[in-house]
Design a protein that fits this description.
Oligomer: single chain
Bound molecules: magnesium ion
CATH class of the largest domain: Alpha Beta
Number of helices: 9
Strand content: 15-25%
Number of strands: 12
CATH architecture of the largest domain: 3-Layer(aba) Sandwich
Strand order of the largest sheet: 5-4-3-2-1-10-11-12
CATH superfamily of the largest domain: HAD superfamily/HAD-like
Length: about 260
């Protein structure tokens, strides 16, 4: 059986505060020993995800900026990158113009220096620089009341944009989410023996989780907001971050082994 695994990073495979993935390492190793493809599906930029893959010494396709693009490693020369997002340079000036003429109160990555992003996220300054290399999305902190945010969402919709809630920020982006690239990949893998697993901890992971065969909702401050339908199996981890990721992945691998045994034995 081929496992197609889509995972969120911050708060899921990586610890929310320290960005450590160490507690998940045993599960990553177990997964690497299988017929599997591990696809990072994150609000992070392509530059950040590539740096992380390099650090973990592996290459695989990845999905950046909340589902805006599916990119393949250079070694995968027969695959074409897929774009689901709208280029940020096209719409960001309009969003800022909207802020000027209303009382919408927010600040985002475009307003901040690397140092400020580092302060707000806990990323190192070099990593904050990679996080600011955005092509399709603008993470913001909303400073106004929730009622004004709903008006803002309606104004964004008129520009063909959406506002998605992540672990730290709200993301202004095109009308896509983390499931678009995932569904595209699922269509490429028509093998009946493919099992899709998705892991995430925030409301912006909901569509990705709902599109999986097995969904893992990693415990977080926002995980109770995630209510999904669709997967054959929904697991809620008892532990947050990479420890919960490891627990769930080990259970899934055991489940896969026992169902393969039942089928053949
Ligand atoms: Mg997350």
């Amino acid at each position: 059986m081929t496992l197609l695994v889509f995972t969120d990073l911050d708060g899921s495979l990586m610890e929310h505060e320290s960005y450590s993935i160490t507690p998940a390492e045993p599960a990553l190793e177990a997964l690497a020993g299988r017929d599997s493809l591990l696809i990072f599906n994150s609000s992070k930029t392509a530059a950040e995800i590539r740096a992380l893959q390099e650090q973990l010494s592996f290459t695989a396709p990845y999905v950046c900026e909340n589902g805006a693009a599916l990119e393949f490693p250079a070694s995968d020369s027969d695959q074409q990158n897929q774009c689901f997002g709208l280029p940020r340079q096209q719409w960001l000036p309009e969003v800022h113009a909207l802020r000027e003429k209303t009382d919408y109160n927010f600040e985002g990555f475009a307003d901040w220096s690397d140092a400020r992003v580092s302060e707000l996220t806990g990323l190192g300054k070099a990593e904050a620089g990679l996080a600011r290399q955005r092509q399709y999305s603008e993470p913001i902190l909303w400073r106004g009341p929730a009622s004004a945010r709903r008006h803002f969402e309606a104004d964004l919709a008129r520009l063909g944009l959406s506002l998605l809630e992540g672990g730290r920020f709200f993301s202004i982006q095109g009308q896509h989410d983390k499931s678009n690239a995932m569904r595209w990949m699922q269509q490429q893998c028509t093998d009946a023996e493919t099992l899709t697993v998705a892991l995430g901890d925030s409301p912006n992971d909901s569509a990705m989780l709902a599109a999986a065969d097995i969904a893992v909702i990693i415990k977080s401050a926002k995980s109770d907001q995630i209510q999904i339908q669709g997967p054959q199996k929904i697991i809620r981890s008892n532990r947050p971050g990479p420890a919960g990721w490891k627990d769930a992945m080990m259970d899934i691998l055991q489940f896969v082994d026992s169902s393969v045994e039942n089928k053949h034995g």
